[in-house]
User: Fold this.
Amino acid sequence: MTSAARRIDGMIGRRRFPAIMFMVGAGAFVAATSVVAKALSLEGGDAAGLSPFQISAGRFAFALVALVLVLKAFPNARPAFSGVHWNWHLFRSLSGWLGVTCMFAAVAHMPIAEATAISFLSPLVAMALAALLLGEAIGTRKMLAAGLAILGAMLILRPGTDAFQLAGLWALSAAMFMGIETIFIKKLSDAEPALRILVINNAIGAAIAIAAASFVWVWPSVLQWLLLMALGTIMVSGQALFIQSMKRGEASLVMPAFYTLLVFAAVYDFIFNQVIPVPAAIIGAALIVSGAMILAANHK
Assistant:
């Protein structure tokens, strides 16, 4: 290897490490949102648990507040809004809100790590939709990935047994809506700047979520208000880290690091809820992540 080639290889290596670390950070933050959402769904003292609709409203509303504060502090970063693909943004935000709400409903009634693992089926939904809508081919490798992930989901859900978790259907719904959202994110990321996508998504998501939450609204306690603020701030921080990672590295490089989210979810659930994953759930999660990683590697 020539000295020039070694320098180029070293530069690429120095760029890869921050990209991977940003993605690991994104996984840690996103996993933390499930912990906060679970806490908000539980009764505590004189406060009733909040509905998933109200929790997702807090997630979007306070994420938007955090973004607005950042843009006011750094006015030069404010994105322009000419040439916005509003229809794509609307469908992305609607599917994202549905996905988040279903996920919050799932973690309220089942272990966070198991719900998170099932949500990783979203790449399979995106793969199927890409084949139907974008004409992408589904080869043997993708079929293998799908088979592994579906088998993993069956191990976690265990249908037909006493261990079957109805809440897992909420996690499956979350995976479906997140997969749909992925298609629109892909279209938007090719057409618009990242910060504008982030701002518009949280603005539309907040409008949808607040409207839905108005039908089940109960006044949160002081602690719940603080947790809702934390939820929105943590989520938008995770989104920002995710975007920064994607800007610095190829998806096939950084996406496997996002699956550390499952590790963080299991650790958080053990620390805060004393939940230890059962062996079947661990094996199922490993199969789902393996399938998702095969799909990520397929996009090199």
Confidence is low (pLDDT under 50) at residues 3-13. The radius of gyration is 19 Å. Residues 3-41 form the longest helix (39 residues). The chain is about 75% helix and 0% strand.
